[in-house]
Amino acid sequence: MTLNPQPQARRFTAPLRLDDLSSLGDFDSAYWGLAPTRNHTTYFALCSHHPGGAATLFKHHPEGGITAVCSLQGVGAPLTHPQAVGHGKIHTKLFWDAQDRLVFASHFAYPGAVPQAVQYEGGRVFTVDPQTGHVTDHGVLLAGEGIVTMAFDAHRHRVYALTSPGFHFIAFDLHEQRVLFQQQVAAEGSICRDMCVDPEGTVYLCAEPHQVYTYRPGDPHLTPLHTDFGQHTQALPEWSADNKTGANHVGRRIWRCVTHLPDHQALLAIDAADNAAYLIHLPGGATTCLGTVDPHGNPDAYPSLSLTGEGDIYHYLAVDGRFDYQLSQRVHSPCRLARIDVAQRTITFSAPLTEGQHCLLGVAGATASGTTLRALGMSAPLGALGAGPDDRWTLTLATLDVQA
Fold it and tell me: How far is Cα 226 from Cα 172, in angstroms, rounded to an integer?
């Protein structure tokens, strides 16, 4: 592995606007449900841990405000069993297909966010026409398994999913309406929250302990990619607090975010073990550390799901603590934006992200269109940071100008 110097100390500015989503009070969390903006409209999904609640897809327009597009309430089998739960989460990104429909998948939510035995039919794949709200339900991929991570190959109409609690990888053809491939990735530990697909259709994924796999359409099995990713990192403490137990285990020995860099024949990954950005060079797997993406130096910090960009420039929102909405812990200062220059192999940071007396304190995920980055997260008055969330923390859609 090649080590690079620490990121440059200079700062840049990233003007911020915070749009209050507190009117959506029935929804208590979000994960990565964002789609690249179309026609100045941002599409996002919110989740509910309330018993009987359901994930819902929304759209936000600067002039039209917030509108619900569709809900997963009542989708699937009737909830007749005492421990039955519905589709409380959209835990995946939102992807555009060739027909300008949004593609995503569902997952269950623990009632009250408390890990417990549940009966769940299994995560479903959906396509939605955002103009009409028409929903196409493509069915359950694997009985009893929620879909926590998803990649989409729009050119080949393929959905790739990772499931929980069983940690299965699934390839699904949207046009043929069938599962093409399935394999368990791991029996324990944790799986990545991000996968990527290269132009040839190869999928890249990761499971603990820092094991990278590839899948090529038609392959009979996943293929381990032998890299030194994670072999030289000093892992930070596991997120093992009382409110992150059971199936809510949050692993450290995986990448948190990843994207394929076609111009560099490499993957760009954010390592959950040490909050650093790495290039994983293909096809051999040699690794270059670009430096930390955590300007706060907080050993409690856990990487967000906010890597966006294209070409040589990528952005990432660094959280000063462990951010998971109502399960957040020890968030001490506002988020900062990291700018990763892949060609120059440098990382620079913005000043703390504030708007007046309010700040962006945590994000679930982000998407970028041109020089505009949008993120789902929470904001708060500058004086409300500290041990955990309170009633001053507000669900927020943040918009940043990331022009260099």
Answer: 26
How many other β-carbons are positioned within 10 Å of the β-carbon of residue 404? 8
**Backbone phi and psi for residue 383, each to the nearest 5 degrees, phi listed first:** -85, 5
Which pair of tokens denotes residue 47?
Answer: 């989740």
If one counts every other C-beta atom within 10 angstroms of the C-beta of residue 235, the result is: 14
- By CB neighbour count within 10 A (0-12 exposed, 13-18 middle, 19+ buried), where does 345 fall? middle
Per DSSP, the three-state class of 343 is coil
pLDDT, one tens digit per residue, over 205-240 is 999 999 999 999 999 999 999 999 988 777 777 665
Tell me the pLDDT tens digit for each residue of 229-279: 988 777 777 665 555 555 556 688 999 999 999 999 999 999 999 999 999
* CA–CA separation, 385 and 138 (whole Å): 42
Identity of the residue numbered 368:
A
H or E segment at 125? strand 124-128
Place of tokens 């699934």: 170
> In one letter, which amino acid is 6?
Q
- Contact by Cβ (8 Å): 309, 315: yes
**pLDDT, tens only, 365-400:** 899 988 999 999 999 998 877 766 777 888 899 999
Residues in the chain where the model's pLDDT stays below 50: 3, 5-9
Residue 69 CA to residue 47 CA, distance in Å, equals 14
166-179 burial string, b = 16+ CB within 10 Å, else e?
ebbbbbbbbeeeee
Q: Would you state the structure tokens that stand for residue 144, as one six-digit string?
A: 């009893």
Cβ atoms of 2 and 289 closer than 8 Å: yes
Contact between 43 and 102 (Cβ < 8 Å): yes
Instruction: Measure the CA dihedral 378/38/261/179, to 10°.
Output: 90
| Residue reference for tokens 């008055």 | 381
Distance CA(102)–CA(109), nearest Å, equals 22
Sign of the alpha-carbon torsion through 6, 11, 15, 19: positive
Q: Which of 99, 109, 8 is nearest to 52 (CA)?
A: 109
